[in-house]
Design a protein that fits this description.
One of its GO terms (molecular function) is 5-amino-6-(5-phosphoribosylamino)uracil reductase activity. By secondary structure, the chain is an alpha/beta fold. Helices cover 33% and strands 17% of the residues.
Length: 589
């Protein structure tokens, strides 16, 4: 199917001086072509955001395939880790129209060891030219796909480098915005932090008695649900739990379930609260080391994860969440914690919902507590402020600190040592992996490599990822039709993240359907799947063998069985099995 897309109004994302239009001596593109290509790039950025709320935050990829006549022949977006790439989807939809066409990418493809699927799809489809909205901000991926495409004879134009104009400038802003969390991760080593609150026209978030349900409209609350779905974690303080007893759920009817996080130094929290129900949504409590051990045990018995800090503060919390692999977090806290978070310098964006209501009250709380400012010249000003009417409310949003308008070039370890020889490099004998977009991400169970494997009755079946196979086998072999239904639900999950979520929920709801030998059999199940994966893809086998001499660590800070844990206390069974497989490959090449 082919359809035309006419240039629309520019998307305003970040304010900075516009680049001068490129001269005709450096490009043959006409003003109309610049406008049209700008529209295509903005469209790629727009569709890249389509998975938000359905899967955990991840790098957002969108791809448009356009014919030489300027019509869109195919498009696609990355739904989640381990799923079909945007480039593959776009060329499949475009079919024969790819020949001699142009692909528009909001973000450079992930071209790394064991994952050249996206680049290969474009080359094999006959794409003549690729326009890239921005280079990948992560060092181990930056420039790889651009080089690979050019080496295959494909013309690659990178916005801001090979293409410059006022229209192109606006398209680049759209690309930066849709991957702002990824840029923050690369540039600052922290997740993208959003502060959200709802207040009355006179700046109150509750009455003097603490009552706050409801300040904003139903539609505004739906928008908050969307913000939650875009986050890895929703953070509140203990006072919010004591006074409001919120559920903090992201949406109804499925989709991504961010972890609910409660920060409390003293654990002066109610024994019964909606967030302690972890049957379908996980909850984490962050507290001071040694705080009320008896209450910690109570929370643990309810399935709540408790994490202790030597000094509980927003800065250490956000750095901890970076270590957990989070890209985006949402702060929905009261005024005291909000002030502390802002003062820590970790808030990137603010969403304020202002309701046309006045409640007054000298002691009624405000959304942000004491910041120590005594003059208006000290006030923090938002950047790139946006106003939107949401039912009868007004939503005001803006950035508290600028997002870098170019993808940062993170220096390599050798470059860092050349500048500062006192820097201690990572121990080269340890290779860590976690998210699929991280270095050595192809070692993850979530990587986009399907496996064709023999089942228990001797037939072959295909699984989207190793994670799908592993999670489904919790229910394999149980003599109950309901168990087979569980297997099919997990197998048909649209992403490995969803497969994990479905399996864990079914395991909680129907423990009787889980195979009785699972606690011992799971290691053999995992090893069988890993062996199939790395035997099926020669490039993955070569990558695994390239790690000889290094200890492989699955760097999950919270999975103490398959991962290494936060302080190395995890059993790291995934890393162990990969090293066992590596040894097997070496002994039987």
């Amino acid at each position: 199917m082919i359809f035309s897309l006419v240039p629309s109004s520019p998307i305003i994302c970040f304010s900075r001086p516009a680049a001068a239009a490129i001269s005709t001596s450096t490009s043959s593109l006409s003003q109309y072509q610049y406008s049209l290509e700008s529209t295509f790039i903005r469209r790629a950025a727009e569709i890249a955001d389509k998975s938000a709320g359905f899967t955990a935050p991840h790098p957002n990829y969108g791809c448009i395939v356009a014919t030489a006549s300027g019509d869109i022949a195919g498009e696609g977006f990355l739904f989640g880790q381990g799923t079909k790439s945007a480039e593959v989807q776009a060329v499949e939809e475009a079919g024969e129209y790819c020949r001699g066409g142009t692909a528009f990418l909001n973000l450079e493809s992930s071209e790394c060891a064991g994952d050249d699927i996206a680049v290969s799809a474009l080359v094999q489809a006959g794409i003549r030219r690729v326009v890239v909205g921005m280079r990948h901000p992560l060092q181990h991926l930056r420039g790889n796909a651009v080089r690979a495409l050019r080496n295959q004879g494909v013309q690659v134009d990178v916005i801001g480098e090979d293409l410059q104009s006022r229209e192109i400038e606006e398209a680049q802003k759209a690309c930066l915005l849709v991957n702002a969390p990824l840029i923050c991760k690369a540039a600052s080593q922290v997740p993208f932090s959003v502060l959200k609150y709802a207040m009355t026209l006179d700046g109150k978030i509750a009455t003097t008695t603490g009552h706050s349900a409801w300040i904003s409209s139903v539609t505004s609350r739906h928008r908050v649900s969307e913000l939650r779905g875009r986050s890895d974690a929703i953070i509140v303080g203990g006072n919010t739990i004591r006074k409001d007893d919120p559920k903090l759920t992201a949406r109804h009817g499925g989709g991504h379930t961010p972890v609910r996080v409660v920060m409390s130094r003293t654990l002066d929290l109610p024994e019964e609260a909606k967030v302690w129900d972890t049957s379908s949504v996980p909850t984490m409590v962050l507290t001071q080391r040694g705080a009320t051990r008896s209450f910690q045990k109570l929370l643990a018995s309810k399935g709540v994860e408790v994490v202790e800090f030597n000094n509980l503060n927003p800065r250490d919390v956000i750095e901890y969440f970076h270590d957990r692999g989070y890209l985006s977090v949402l702060w929905e806290c009261g005024g005291t914690l909000a002030a502390s978070t802002i003062a820590s310098g970790i808030v990137h964006k603010v969403f304020a919902f202002v309701a046309p209501k006045i409640i007054g009250g000298r002691n009624a709380p405000s959304p942000v507590g004491e910041l120590g400012m005594v003059e208006m010249t000290q006030a923090l000003e938002l950047i790139d402020v946006q106003y939107e009417k949401v039912e009868e409310d007004m939503m005001i949003s803006g950035f508290l600190q600028p997002i870098l308008d170019v993808a940062p070039i993170i220096p390599s370890r050798d470059e860092t040592l050349a500048v500062d020889p006192t820097v201690v490099p990572y121990e080269p004998s340890i290779i860590s992996f976690y998210n699929t977009w991280d270095n050595y991400g192809a070692l993850s169970n979530f990587s986009p490599h399907s496996i064709h494997i023999v089942d228990e009755i001797g037939d072959y079946s295909t699984w989207m990822t190793v994670e799908h196979y592993y999670q489904a086998h919790k229910f394999v072999g149980v003599d109950d039709p309901a168990a087979q239904e569980c297997v099919e639900k997990i197998k048909s999950a649209s992403s490995p993240e969803e497969a994990t979520r479905i399996a864990r929920l079914l395991q909680k709801q129907h423990p009787d359907l889980v195979r009785s030998d699972w606690e011992t059999a799971k290691f053999d199940v995992m090893y069988k799947a890993l062996k199939c994966k790395f035997s099926s893809y020669s490039i993955l086998k070569s990558m695994l063998l390239s790690t000889v001499g290094s200890v492989l660590v699955e760097s999950s800070p919270h999975d103490l069985v398959w991962g290494g844990g936060r302080f190395g206390e995890g059993l790291n069974y995934l890393g162990r099995l990969l090293m066992k497989l590596r040894a097997e490959f070496l002994s039987h090449p």
